[in-house]
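re the bet — no i am not wrong, look at it urself. input seq straight from the record:
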Amino acid sequence: MSMKKLNRPQIYEIMRFIIVGGLATVVDLTVTTVLVFTTHLHENLITSVAFIIAFWVSYFGHRYFTFKANGSVGAFFLLAIATLILRNIIVYLLLLTDIRGFAALITAMIIVTVITYAVAKFKIFKHN
């Protein structure tokens, strides 16, 4: 995407990306909540299960709805893991600068979302 004005299909694609990401987030939170209140699983297991289920929602959502293109599930999983790590690093660095709480979390989320969109669009789900 160049710095020129976005056209309508590009705007709709970005909106679809946000919808799929939002749905994956809702699934992550729902699975987490259900498991917390219905099981005695360890928190790390709960967050891992929720992450994996949300990952599949995200992958298939982007494959069939956002980008409408085949993409490597392995590459998308590596992207998800890498951006999860990056997000935590960004939060950690922001905390060192006394940017805390919601501001740190939202800042990291925005940065990682932009990176995820770019990598998914131009590398993983690119149209041939």
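see?? The two ends are 16 Å apart (CA to CA). told u. also Residues 8-124 form one domain. so pay up
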